[in-house]
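Subgroup meeting minutes
Present: P.N., E.W., G.H.
Scribe: E.W.

1. P.N. recapped why we're keeping a running log of single-chain structure predictions: easier to compare across weeks, and new members can see raw inputs and outputs side by side.
2. G.H. added today's entry (503 aa).
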Amino acid sequence: MAPREALPAPSSPKQLRRTVSYARKQITATQTFGYSAGHILNDLCSACWFTYLIIYLTEVKQQSESFAGILMLVGQVADGLVTPLVGITMDKFGIERYGKRKTWHALGTFTVIISFAFMFHKCFGCEESSSQIQQLYYGAFIVLFQIGWASTQISHLSLIPVLTVCKKKIVFLNSIRSGLTFVCGIVVYLLMGLLLHLAGSKVDALGPGDERAFSYLSMIVIGVGLLFSLVFHVLVSESSEYVELEKSQALVGDQIEVGLTDVKIETEQEQFTIKNWLELKRFYLVGLMYMFTRIAINVPQVYLPLYLISTLSLNKESIAYYPLVMLICSVIGSFLTRPLTKLSGKRVAYICGATLVVGSSFWFYFQSKDDPNPTYGATACIGVGCSIMLILSLSMTADLIGGHTDTAAFVYGSMSLVDKLSSGILIALIQHFHPEKCNPDLGPCSSNGAEYYRYTMSVIPGTAALLAALSTLLLSFVVKRCPHTTRIQNQSDETLKCEEKEI
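Output recorded in log:
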């Protein structure tokens, strides 16, 4: 597809209105479809990574729990550190003719495909080597995978304001992106159940004989993801219109109405610095809320399969069907969030979601292996609750940022880094203290860890949801006087000062 002709910089409000209207019309149905295909590889790989990595390493590869926990920690740390670095580097380097964002998307896609191909396969050339060698082998590919995943994610997300400046279309593209994440998860879980039935071993228990099913799953994910990535690169063109539009905004200091969208253009913008954020109590409370929310989501996603096959002794196909139920209920929860928020407000709605998570944690604890069918109810409750908590935590983070978008990257980057580190460290500790690794001299040890996963699925998500709800309640006692209004002029520079009052 030939690149579109760049727009000239307008010199008047009327001409700028025409420019914005033209840019808004450039996002066609073909480009919308192409853009929606650009993150499918990431979404498919992400569903496999969180749900099946630990169970694959411990049950199929027969590695130790600490082995799997360290690799999960390495991946989470790499993701947390690489994401902001990629965001900074992307704006400086890339092929201008092809598009900087599409260049990074292509590099990220290539890296994800190469690395993910080795994560759910046997250790080539080191299958009989020590666990340390195999840990280095898988760890190297996991780090590469996280680098590629971050590159693809950030480049794809940053393309939205390039394709359109219309707020409604921006929301629409984000909605498609989020919706396809759920669809990809559903596809992965259905494939996993089918492959375990067709390509796995003939026994009900998950074991080394099922390695072929995981290998086939990774190859299908790579093939489907590569196909959609090619569609993205063929149908979506990254033009220079957005750059020209940004340049033109410096020429006009008005607020211009474009259709139903108000585009506010300012020649001067008040800066809210990193130091200002670090002095803000709400910044830490929202950060704690988001961190505990992610823990309440990530731990069940990782340990539900192990809880099913170890604690409840279900057949191996259950590691596909139950996560599928949880994901479908998460979609239902996302639709319930808006009316619940309108009815009761964000904080009350958030606490309702946390209550569902706490209730499901009790359900998981008291669930008997003699009749496992009620587990579907607990799985549904935690799916709905976690979805409500996640959506509202992101909404409250956006409320915290307000109009200070100049440092929004720092806020989101900080939240993401804390999320990745906390989840990675927690999962590594859970794996390290698995009963098989305890010291028999200090007390009795469970040989199969069945009850250990019962405590993991009940105590940790429930506690995290309670702490997240407490952080939300504490936000109610902090009244924000600024940062949006108070401005103090110094002789050398201008700063924003935020005052908070506790009531």
